Amino acid sequence: MLCSFGACLLTLILGVSAPSSYGASRKNDTCGEEVSGLRSCIWVDSTEVRPRQKILAHYRIQNASDREIVLWQSGFWPNNTIVVLNDRGESVKLTKEGRRNLAAFSPGGARNKNFRVQLKPNESIDINTLDLRRFFVLNAPGNYTVGFIYEEYQDGGWQGKLTSNELRFRIR
Questions:
Q1: Which of 14, 86, 107, 119 has a beta carbon 3.0–4.6 Å from 151's, enabling a disulfide?
Q2: Closest-CA residue to 57 (of 40, 79, 38, 39)
Q3: What are the φ and ψ backbone dihedral angles of 7, each rounded to 5 degrees?
Q4: How far apart are CA 145 and CA 32, in angstroms?
Q5: Which CATH number is 115's domain given?
Q6: Is 58 within the bounds of a domain?
Q7: CA triplet 135, 37, 122: central angle to 5 degrees?
Q8: Is 68 within the bounds of a domain?
Q9: Averaged confidence pLDDT in the chain
Q10: How far apart, in whole angstroms, are the C-alpha atoms of residue 61 and residue 161?
Q11: CA–CA gap between residue 136 and residue 157 (Å, rounded)
């Protein structure tokens, strides 16, 4: 499971979109396991890319329960991370921007801005689409695995660690 590779966590500074219907705009994805009513799904535009081609990853969190769930959002960085591994299971080197953002990951930590997102049953929230090359050195041809993690311990909302599906992609 990707969540066991704590040493390779990456955090990103991004905004989020408003909650949406779960089925809208999903492409070739499966989701990670449900944890306390939530599921996390990621997908890419293409699972095979050329050198220097953008690797666009999409990320969504869904309320899979029959009750409303509150998430805390304060951009992306305090409670979300990305893990990318090469075909040997090793963490992929971070870019300068990736290293800078890694330091911001702090689930349950102090926040300058924090807002509640209330998800009704079967409602989801789309996180901005990311180009993985901005945060990881992905120059070598080969097979890679990516996963996203939402982890939160703030009072007044969902608490725990939610891991997305593991998604494989190839650089030619």
A1: 107
A2: 40
A3: -70, -15
A4: 14
A5: 2.60.40.2360
A6: yes
A7: 90
A8: yes
A9: 84
A10: 12
A11: 31
Q: How many helices (H) and strands (E) does the chain have?
A: 1, 11
Residue 28 has pLDDT above 90, yes or no: no
Three-state secondary-structure class, residue 97:
helix
pLDDT at 141: 97
| Residue tagged 């290293």 (tokens) | 99
What's the total number of domains in the chain?
1
Q: pLDDT of 77-130, one tens digit each?
A: 789 999 999 999 999 999 999 998 888 888 888 887 788 999 999 999 998 789
Cα gap 88→75, rounded to integer Å: 32
Instruction: Determine the Cα–Cα distance for residues 31 and 49; give it in Å rounded to an integer.
Output: 22
Domain that holds residue 73: 8-171
Q: Is residue 1 part of a domain?
A: no
Tell me the three state secondary structure of residue 42. strand
Greater pLDDT, 153 or 25: 153
- Greater confidence (60 vs 74) lies with 60
Q: Do 40 and 60 touch, CB atoms closer than 8 A? A: yes
Sign, CA torsion 122/44/98/34 = positive
Which amino acid, 103?
Answer: A
Average pLDDT, integer, range 30-55: 96
